[in-house]
Design a protein that fits this description.
Blueprint lengths: L23 E2 L3 E9 L3 E8 L4 E8 L8 H13 L14 E9 L2 E8 L4 E2 H7 L6 H21 L2 E2 L8 E3 L5 H12 L4 E3 L5 E3 L16 E3 L6 E2 L17 H4 L7 H16 L16 H12 L4 H4 L28 H4 L5 H12 L12 H5 L6
Antiparallel strand pairs: 1-2, 2-3, 3-4, 4-6, 5-6, 7-9, 8-13, 9-12, 10-11
């Protein structure tokens, strides 16, 4: 029966470096247990023998023809290391301590030594399946907006992949790290030996906090899809479909404002407990851009002429004045932000919807910046 990375749809075992619990890397990092896996990496808790601290070792897959997300992430951290900044948002980004390469059968594997985290916000919401309350949402947004203000204004970095998987909770209780290592030593995780070289381990979770410790505070992580620079031409799509900004859909040039659109859609996940742009897929599960754009029209109105004129592709959906013309492809649904918000009422609802609308605008330059959003009346 497949476990962990073996369950991935396009799993190719030779692309994953064969890490074993107990391995020592760089005469320094000793693997204590497996924390997780993804399409482009595996993550391991390691003890740094030089300072007796625990770190996370993220080992990338090796894809000969393509740069991996871990390679891109390393370049982002290299870029960040060159900045001399006192911006408070910098401390709200996961820290990189070290990096090195391993040579595997398929080629080079980039390894990042990172700050340990408790769990992702996605995992927290799965364990506690209730949407955020208003104080928790506001605290999370203030931290995320500070991190984005630093990235956008001081580092010229666009994250492009803001989602609950990439927001992690800090560790308030450091004893959880040693306890994890002890539990792995005392009760080894299930594993499957494939051959003399390769063993696939099942990931282990940290125990829950004790002794009055909480779940930690949100930190922005995973820069595997991030881009450096103020402006980017259209090209390979960025952003998951449900968070994709309209300028990306139409293959226009884009910049940091795509993160602001993404944030608006992410807020809905956190607060309303469902995707704002969830109903944008066809019967086979593929992205339907007409349904997506029709839903945008319902929620934020028709695009201005200036937006329509920025791409020839827009004429498939809009006339020159911005009116929807793709009626045969998708109908504009009878919904609004006001009708979809079921948690607030009165003046707080008005302020919240106004806050949302300031992020969800057709023209990227009309979206409020992270710094401006930090001063929004609803967040104060």
């Amino acid at each position: 029966m497949p476990i962990d990375e073996e369950t991935l749809p396009y799993y190719e075992p030779e692309q994953f470096y064969p890490v074993h619990i107990g391995d020592l890397f760089k005469d320094r990092y000793q693997v204590a247990g497996k924390l997780g896996y993804g399409a482009y990496s595996t993550s391991w808790l390691c003890r740094d023998l030089r300072n007796d601290k625990y770190r996370v070792l993220k080992v990338s897959t090796s894809l000969r023809k393509f740069p991996t997300a871990t390679d891109r992430e390393f370049k982002i951290y290299e870029h960040l290391a060159k900045l001399d900044s006192a911006h408070p948002g910098q401390s709200l980004i996961r820290e990189l301590y070290d990096s090195f390469d391993l040579q595997g059968l398929a080629g080079k594997h980039r390894c990042l030594v990172l700050q340990p985290m408790y769990m992702t916000v996605h995992e927290m919401m799965r364990l506690n399946p209730r949407p955020f309350d208003v104080p928790l949402l506001k605290m999370t947004l203030r931290r995320l907006l500070l991190a984005l203000d630093f990235l956008h204004n001081e580092a010229s970095i666009t994250h492009t992949d803001l989602k609950t998987d990439n927001l992690m909770l800090s560790l308030e209780d450091d004893t959880m790290l040693a306890d994890f290592a002890k539990e792995e030593a005392d009760q080894p995780s299930p594993r499957k030996k494939i051959d003399e070289i390769r063993t696939v381990y099942k990931s282990r979770h940290f125990r829950r906090p004790v002794r009055g410790k909480g779940y930690g505070l949100p930190i922005l992580c995973d820069f595997g899809e991030a881009r450096i620079g103020k402006n980017h031409e259209s090209g390979p799509f960025v952003q998951p479909h449900i968070y994709r900004a309209p300028e990306v859909i139409f293959e226009m040039s884009w910049g940091s404002a795509v993160d602001i659109w993404n944030l608006g859609a992410l807020i809905w996940d956190l607060f309303e407990g469902k995707h704002l742009f969830g109903d944008i897929f066809d019967n086979k599960g593929g992205h339907d851009p007409f349904k997506h754009l029709a839903l945008m029209v319902a929620l934020i109105g028709s695009p201005p002429t200036e937006f329509v004129q920025r791409s020839e592709t827009t004429e498939q959906c809009f006339d020159q004045s911005g009116a929807w013309i793709a009626h045969q492809d998708a109908a504009v649904p009878p919904v609004s932000l006001e009708s979809l918000d079921v948690r607030l009422s009165g003046s707080e609802k008005e302020l919240f919807i106004c806050f949302m609308r300031s992020m969800l605008k057709w023209l990227p330059e009309e979206r409020r910046t992270a710094r401006q959003l930090l001063e929004d009346p609803w967040l104060l």
